[in-house]
Amino acid sequence: MKHIILSCVLIFNLTACAELQQVVHQLPQNTPISNGDIAAGLRQALDFGIDKQVSKLTETDGFYKNDLVKILLPEELQKVDKTLRDIGLGNLADEGLKAINRAAEDAVKEATPIFIDAVKSITFSDAKNILLGNDNAATMYLTHKTETALYDKFNPVIKHSFNKVGADQIWTNLISKYNSIPFTNKVNPDLTDYVTKEALNGVYTMIAVEEKEIRTQLNSRTTDLLKKVFALQD
């Protein structure tokens, strides 16, 4: 009887081991991922941010009706806005605010290739740490590496867009109107510099939105590379 029981136990153990081994073979095997693969995955995530999110900024009201990136007036012009509204020129103030956002929308449309080139050329010196960092770590790295150079390229585009959408004339008239009001301090802000910085911030903000989605939502990893790389940080 004992021999029968021992035989049954042995057969059961052998069967269980065989089944367990089969399950193990069916599991995905861990393969080492190089720093180059991780860097390629991070670039792809940033590319998707440009393609899916930054492209939204180029549409009419892409900045103006997006609370994440809407360009508000600089501090020195907030008193202009308030004063104009106080004397019944709210429509003029609205037109001025909309004009600077229109310039940003137009400029991003022209400057998108600049961001694409920046992402292609960026080198991630420590890609793994960036991958395992915060939800916007790759975007912050891109910002740090490209912001100064992109400002120099973006600024003339903003200046051109101000003229193209008529924002320069709108603000010349608006500020002239304000400066003609008695007892006000005259203003002459550098709107091109201000809007350039705000537009760049808007672009980086929207890239970060897509990066976070790829990091936190499995269905946003729409390529094999994204699935492979970002699985490491799950």
UniProtKB/TrEMBL annotation:
Alphabetic keyword roster: Signal
Pfam families in alphabetical order: DUF4197
Signal peptide: 1-18
InterPro entries, alphabetized: DUF4197
Superkingdom of origin: Bacteria
The protein's name in its UniProt record: DUF4197 domain-containing protein
Organism: Allotamlana fucoidanivorans
Lineage: Bacteria, Pseudomonadati, Bacteroidota, Flavobacteriia, Flavobacteriales
